[in-house]
Amino acid sequence: METRTLQLQSGQLVYWDTGSGFPVVFLHGLPTSKELWTHMIDGFHSFRVIVPDLMQYGESEQVDTDFTHKERANNLKEMLDLLQIETIHLVGHDLGSSVAIDFLGMYGELVDKFVIMSPPVYPDFKPPLLVKLNRLPVLGPFMIRFFVDLMFNIGIKRGLTDKSRFTEEMRLHFNKRFRDALGRKTLYKLLRWGEPETEFADYPEIISHLTQETLVVHGKKDPYIPLEHSRRLARDISNARLEIIENGSHFLPLDYGTEIRDLILAFLE
What is the distance between the alpha carbons of residues 42 and 252, in angstroms, rounded to a whole number? Predict the structure, then answer.
C-alpha cells in the first residue's frame, strides 16, 4: 500500500492510494485511522482505493484547531480536487459516516454509490458513556493524560466480536498520535466534536434527498450505535438496502474485513 501526502489548506493529509479504475474513498471514524480498513481493501483489484487519515488522526498533521464534520468534508473535496478526481464511490464508518453525510449534502453530485456503516447520523443519537466521561472538564483531560492506552483497549475491544483483532500494532496505529501533549489535547478536542442535536440537525433533510444507491451495514451487537438508526437510515434513503452482520459489533472493517469487503464489492460491481 503506497502512502502519500497532500498539503491541504488546513494541514498535511496522509493517505493510501493504490490500484486503478473507478475511485473508492474510505473514511474511518473516531478514534481510529486508515489502518481500520487494512483487512479488507486488498480485494479491490478493479478500483482505485484511496484511504485518508482524517486530519488530526493517524499520520495526518496534528493541527491545534477544532474541525467540524463539514470542515472535514471540505478537506475531502480539496483532496479530490488536488487529485483531479471528479466522481467517487464513498464508504464511511462511525464518524466517518457523519463526514460522508456532510459531504453528500454539499457535493452529492460527486458521489456515485454510497456505503455507510455503524452510522451516528441522527440528532437523537446518544454518545457512549466513555465519550461523555472524557468530555468532562476535569475528568476528561485527567483520563486522557494518564489512561489513554486503557481507554483505547476498553473502547475498541468493547466494539469487537473478536477481541484479538485489536493487536498491539493496531493499537499503535490508532493512538500513537495522541501520546504527547499536543496529541492528548487533540484527542480531547476530537471527543468533544459537538452535540448530535446540533451537529446532526440538518442530516435528516440531507438524508431524505439522497438519490445514490446506498448500502447500509450494521453489526447486530453494536454497543455504540443502535441498530434502529441503521434501519431508519435504510428507510429514509430512497434507494438503500440494509445488511445486518448477525454476530457483528461496532468496528466491522477490523472484525469482519473479508465479509465486509465481499459485501461492498458485490454492491459496487
Answer: 16
pLDDT score of 170 more than 90: yes
Domain 3-125+196-268, what fold?
Answer: Rossmann fold (3.40.50)
Q: Do 26 and 91 contact (CB within 8 A), yes or no?
A: yes
Q: What is the pLDDT at residue 1?
A: 74
pLDDT at 193: 86
- Residues 138-149 as b or e (16 or more Cβ within 10 Å = b): eebeebbeeebe
| Beta pairing partners, 215 | 115, 241
**Best CA proximity match to 245, nearest among 266, 230, 265:** 230
The set of cell numbers assigned to 192 is 468533544
Whether 159 contacts 131, CB under 8 Å: no
Overall pTM surpassing 0.90 (yes/no): yes
pLDDT tier, 40 (very low <50, low <70, confident <90, very high otherwise): confident
Phi and psi torsions of 6, nearest 5°: -130, 140
Residue 237 CA to chain centroid, in angstroms?
19
Instruction: Report d(CA 108, CA 76) in Å as an integer.
Output: 12
Domain boundaries, the chain: 3-125+196-268
